[in-house]
Amino acid sequence: MAVSLRPRCEACQRPTERCLCPLIPHLPHRCPVLVLQHTSESRHALNTARLAVLGLQQAQLWVGESFSQLNAYLAAFRHPVLLFPGPEAQTVEQWRAAQREPDLLIVPDGTWRKARKILYANPCLQELPRLQLNVAEASRYRVRKAPDAQSLASIEAIAQVLAELQPEQSYAALLRPFEQLIEEQIAAMGAEVYARNYGGLT
In this structure, what DSSP letter does residue 2 have? Predict the structure, then answer.
């Protein structure tokens, strides 16, 4: 007997009865965003990068590991930056001190290992200036075991960078579907399982 698949929303990829689209904003931002999502991450139930792209007016999501069109795409921008830590990575404040502002934000999405694979598979990314975050608060990603409390989900990192680039614009709404998704995951696993696996309380 064939097993029927649960219908899913084409936009947010959630089951239709748990569609997150009513919570997804359509926020303006000066700096376009390109998310390079590793193929394995696109199958993850908590696809936070997809939610970020859906909530922004000038954002794209490319899925893969090696992107043949990337060189030509980057040629259209004067100051593209890669959101990725490194010895020469700078903060938004340091960019501003040099009287520069990025005109494209590139965000590798995946585990640290998968994100590095994207960098190695696309040499043009290694030539870009790097941007890093000043993480002041712990991540709200309460159903993930991160290397440290300041490791952010992609959607959190993107929201923070855009807020730093445009302090006059609030990007809190970008996190609403993410927070709802986390609450649903915790409710589905139950308080006891959540507390045992993640040391949290509902």
Answer: P
